[in-house]
C-alpha cells in the first residue's frame, strides 16, 4: 500500500485487498490508519499521532514495527510486521511522501508447515 501527503491510500495491490477484506475502490483515497490501524491489539483507540506510519510522514524516517495488528473489514485483527518508508520526490517545496507497508508476518510458521507436510 502507498500513501500520499494527505495520508490517503494512493495505490494498493490485490494481496493487500484480499488480506484486509476491502476492494481496491474502498481503500483508494481513504486513510490507511482509519481503515486498518485504528486500534491497538486490545481494541482500544490508536491515536494517529502515535502511529509509526504517520510518524514516518512527519519526520521522513523509516519505521519498522513487529508487534502490532492491522484490522480487517470484518472487524477481526491479525498480527503484522511492517516497514513504513517515506519516499521523497522533487525539491523541498514540492514533494510527495509515500509509506510502503510490507505485510511480513503473514508467512510466520509457513516453513514449519512445509517441513511437517514432507515428513
Description:
The chain has 119 residues and is of the alpha+beta class. The chain has a single domain, classed as Beta-Lactamase. It has five helices and four strands, in the order ββααααββα. The strands form two sheets. Strands 1-2 form a two-stranded antiparallel sheet. The chain has a two-stranded antiparallel sheet with strand order 3-4. The longest helix has 9 residues, at 110-118. The radius of gyration is 16 Å and the shape is globular.
* Rg over alpha carbons: 16 Å
Shape: globular
Q: And the CATH topology?
A: Beta-Lactamase
Q: Per CATH, which architecture?
A: 2-Layer Sandwich
Along the chain, the helix and strand elements come as: EEHHHHEEH
Features of this protein?
119 residues; Beta-Lactamase; two-stranded antiparallel ribbon
Give a brief rundown of this model:
This protein is 28% helix and 18% strand. The protein is an alpha+beta fold and 119 residues long. The chain has one domain: Beta-Lactamase (2-Layer Sandwich).
Topology overview:
Elements: E1 2-3, E2 9-11, H1 14-20, H2 24-27, H3 32-36, H4 52-59, E3 63-71, E4 77-84, H5 110-118
Amino acid at each position: 500500500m502507498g500513501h500520499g501527503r494527505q495520508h490517503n491510500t494512493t495505490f494498493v495491490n490485490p494481496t493487500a485487498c484480499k488480506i484486509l477484506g476491502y476492494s481496491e475502490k474502498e481503500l483508494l483515497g481513504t486513510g490507511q490508519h482509519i481503515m486498518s490501524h485504528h486500534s491497538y491489539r486490545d481494541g482500544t483507540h490508536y491515536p494517529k499521532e502515535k502511529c509509526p506510519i504517520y510518524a514516518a510522514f512527519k519526520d521522513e524516517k523509516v519505521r519498522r514495527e513487529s508487534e502490532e495488528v492491522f484490522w480487517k473489514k470484518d472487524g477481526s485483527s491479525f498480527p503484522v510486521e511492517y516497514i513504513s518508508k517515506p519516499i521523497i520526490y522533487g525539491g523541498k517545496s514540492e514533494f510527495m511522501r509515500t509509506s510502503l507497508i510490507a505485510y511480513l508476518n503473514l508467512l510466520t510458521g509457513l516453513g514449519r508447515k512445509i517441513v511437517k507436510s514432507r515428513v
